[in-house]
Sequence to fold (336 residues):
Amino acid sequence: MGVSPTLADILAARAVLRGRADATPLVPSPYMSMRSGQDFLLKLELAQPIGAFKLRGALNAVMSLPDGVAGVTCCSTGNHGRGVAYAAALRGMRAVVCMSRLVPQAKVDGIRALGAECQIGGGSQDEAQIEARRLVEAEGLVEIPPFDDPRVIAGQGTIGLELLEARPDLETLLVPLSGGGLAAGVALAAKAIKPGIRVVGISMDRGAAMRASLAAGRPVEVEEVESLADSLGGGIGLDNRLTFTLCRDLLDEVVLVTEEEIRDAMQALYFEDCLVAEGASVVGLAAILSGKLALTGPAATIITGRNLDMDRFTRIVTGQDVTLGDRLLKGKPHGT
Ligand SMILES: *Cc1c(COP(=O)(O)O)cnc(C)c1O
Fold:
């Protein structure tokens, strides 16, 4: 269970996901190509049945369970819970998703709509994690971790296979980074196929647990704060077994972007590519548009999800102010 996944595990995951959570579109972005000076592609994981890539890892993990388990539980910033709820429903299993109060209501509603039970409590992902562990003890549920699990990493890694099969010439992959299941899986697959490829993780600059851990040389805790990239919140776990080491060994660099840069990138994706996506999805665009990252060849980023509060999204893209916890993010219309 604690063993790091390999390319073979990612290929096996692909067979599990076939016809259920694979083959999302990879589309060119003329605007990002113009801004970056290189061929720039968007992998549209927002087209998954649950609106986010997390279905891949969740399905791979839930499908691997033996028949007869009492049900599954997880902690989640929203999208993993949705993936677990969807996968559990496919298998006719009970699912209980534990979330902190920071998780947007739209995400909670989406999980309930799939038939899962939601446990809301605590102010951080770590507290949600404690509740999930308690349910394992008390109710015999099987925990599906959001990122630090070989089956989950292998599931997310199938994105790396699809990217390089579609475009073997890709030179750089820009991967939104939180717990690192996505980045670890994608980097594992991509570097197994094309060792010279550059894989860059991107996080928001406030509460970037993986970046702080990589800098410290061991998993550390950071304070969790509200962000436009809410899906990137949460720690990596002080007892992290897999994703810390994988990200340390496989990521070429990690770039941090500000809330203002995320806002600008959400607007760019909306007005220039006509796509509605979460803040977490656009950090790769933000790294380029802010000038923090330069490209020297064809690149792709993963548009990871679209599970949004649409009232807030509308405010963001129309340039109105939004509150992030105790902070006010001033509005700014696109192109001004
Ligand atoms: C979970 C998530 C991420 C980050 O994935 P990790 O495996 O935790 O690094 C990025 N974007 C969205 C939309 C997510 O839900």
